[in-house]
Amino acid sequence: MIVATDRLQSALNAHLAGDLRKAESLYQKLLQSQPGNARVCYLLGSLYAQRRQTNLAVAMLRRAVALDPLLAEAHNNLGRTLEDAGDKDAAQDSYARAFTLAPGNPDFACNLAALRETLGDHEMALGLYDHVLSQTPDHADAHWNRALIRLRGGDFAGGWPDFEWRFAAPGARRREFSTPQWRGEPLAGKTIFVHAEQGYGDTFHFVRYLPWLKSQGARVVFECHDGMKSVLAGCDGFDLLTEWSEHWFDDHFEELDCQIPLLSLPGIAQTETNTIPAEISYIKADASKEQYWGERLTEIAGGAIRVGVVWAGSPNQKNDANRSCRLTDLAPVLAMDGAQFFSLQRGPAARQIADCPHANLWDLSQELEDFADTAGAIANLDLVISVCTSVAHLAGAMGKPVWTLLSERACWRWMRDRDDSPWYPTMRLLRQQILGDWAPVARRAADLLAEAAASAKP
């Protein structure tokens, strides 16, 4: 490796400090005097990649590996840049070269494993993660990604232990408690504090485990996200329901024997695909809300088939660009005669209705004040069609027919190569085959809806 000169060190310092303009200028001056300096090419190419200047980045990183074929870091960054540009085959070659040159570098192995997994080579990906963990047992990314592969493949027994590494992954946030975490010891006569984590959909998904917890003789206190208390109030499995903003734990922690994050319960329950608590309708709409929305939707739809639609999740979710579509993508579905569609969409994406009006799409976004209203509306629908959002989980938890439209990069819980879900008996999964291509998914949903409408006619 070339020894850094004072000018190279100055460029590196500027780069690390985030002054990319100064760093670029210094790198370029160095290349004018040292055009064969592979390391400077690598650093400048990495800078271009940071700025999403893909063509410049690829050209400079290729120049680096041509000058020094043994520069593993350059091969790795070239792979990352090519993957971001959508050239997975070339990216795989670069990642593989980096791993071959530096098999002890866990990040290089993880990059190759992640790409192999997206290409469908799950066994090779698992082998690479095993390799990383044999050398670096505490590598959080390797544990977490191995968990996702195993859970997607139905290997729940192998997946749940690694799933506990989710809090150690980069960017994850774990709440710290003085109260010890429950690890499965006897609970009879004890008080346990269960706290929600991640998104609303995760709470709808895993609140099913609270009755199992309660059956062990525990007093269960469940803390949910703000805004969920009204819709969960009628659920079984807890003695006390509180929300984050009520800060119940701060005033009552001395009453507790143990605590646990909600999504850790399936692992302690040793859940397998055939032992999932899949009771239909473990969340029920409030009776008064159900009555109100029954009258409201009848007023609008009359006797037509009633279909709720949701096309986007929270833009803050890291996979939202993949999991969400646009209202225009659902045009084949909304074109069906004889159905009244109701938008259950909330948030910024609800504004798409103004730009894409449909005569048979009624916007409920201004009328749905909280999840209790959404549940009341869902209770009076014949079907919900939704991308992977909290509404899909809520409809499934209520036992309503729900068709969930999935990205090619779908969440682990939907598993692989199946159109049903062991988590929700009334759910059908409609999957993308090509990332970002919603057209075949929408056409399939439209065809299925037409078939359902035809079979419902007397």
UniProtKB/TrEMBL annotation:
Gene3D superfamilies noted in UniProt: Glycogen Phosphorylase B (3.40.50.2000), Tetratricopeptide repeat domain (1.25.40.10)
Signal peptide extent: none
SUPFAM superfamilies to which the protein is assigned, alphabetical: TPR-like, UDP-Glycosyltransferase/glycogen phosphorylase
Domain of life where this protein originates: Bacteria
Pfam families attached to this UniProt entry: TPR_16, TPR_19
Record-annotated membrane-spanning stretches: none
InterPro entries xref list: TMTC_O-mannosyl-trnsfr, TPR-like_helical_dom_sf, TPR_rpt
Entry-linked PANTHER family: PROTEIN O-MANNOSYL-TRANSFERASE TMTC1 (PTHR44809:SF1), PTHR44809
Name of the protein in its database record: Uncharacterized protein
Species lineage: Bacteria, Bacillati, Armatimonadota, Armatimonadia, Capsulimonadales
